[in-house]
Design a protein that fits this description.
two-stranded antiparallel sheet; 226 residues; 12 strands; mainly beta
Length: 226
């Protein structure tokens, strides 16, 4: 086999669509002839998975393993290293400055005694702001508050040959994500309000954080199921 410098088909460029659901939300199976973005956007799945909309700076998944060292007298360097910890984070920026995205970014959409901290399209009698208002209540919380975990799916461009009649996508699924960094909500004359978010991925009881899948499908005329 002749030497080959590389394969341009393995270079991935492109943004991802990000969907969020409640913890332990059912993750649908892909449909044969449509992108997974379309599967998550059907009438039924929209009740489970919410598209966060526009993002900036793409999506960054960072793996940070930690290692311990064993030193011995007979050599100056370490004799053995062992894995002692693991941290996985996912970073992105929400360009749609909705209260719903802000509630997700600051982990504020958890029910409390007085009701949800974020209320969408409040009904008559639910508050003083009027029917149809979106309301995000800011609170300091209290000791013992449970952290708000969500399930996140991102569907981006995949590798492979760019050929007519073939679709390639890379799907990231994180079973448990938790917003852990400070978030700035700004209102400026010459800048858009963007929420920079850093999510910590937590493993399930089986040790799995989620999955990354490279998927190839053949687009067809069959519509996505509702």
């Amino acid at each position: 086999m002749a030497y080959q410098r590389g394969d341009a088909a393995n270079i991935i460029v492109g943004a991802a669509a990000i969907f969020v659901g409640d913890i332990n939300a059912d993750i649908p199976n892909p449909e044969a002839q449509v992108s997974y973005k379309e599967t998550l956007s059907t009438t039924a799945q929209k009740l489970i998975w919410r598209n966060v909309g526009y993002t900036t700076n793409g999506l960054e998944l960072q793996f940070a393993p930690e290692f311990g060292e064993v030193q011995v007298d007979q050599i100056l360097d370490v004799a053995k290293m062992f894995k002692s910890g693991m941290t996985v984070t996912l970073n992105t920026s929400f360009a749609e400055a909705t209260l719903e995205n802000l509630a997700f970014a600051i982990a504020a959409n958890d029910p409390v005694t007085a009701g949800p901290l974020y209320q969408k399209d409040v009904a008559a009698g639910d508050g003083t702001w009027g029917t149809g208002s979106d309301v995000l209540t800011l609170t300091a919380g209290e000791l013992g508050d449970c952290p708000v975990e969500k399930t996140l799916i991102a569907v981006g461009t995949g590798g492979g040959e760019c050929e007519e009649g073939t679709g390639n996508e890379r799907i990231y699924t994180a079973y448990r994500v938790l917003s852990i960094e400070s978030v700035t909500a700004s209102q400026k004359r010459d800048e858009a309000s963007v929420f920079d978010v850093s999510f910590r991925l937590l493993p399930e009881s089986n040790g799995r954080y989620g999955q990354i899948v490279d998927r190839t499908f053949t687009p067809g005329s069959l519509p996505a199921t509702t």
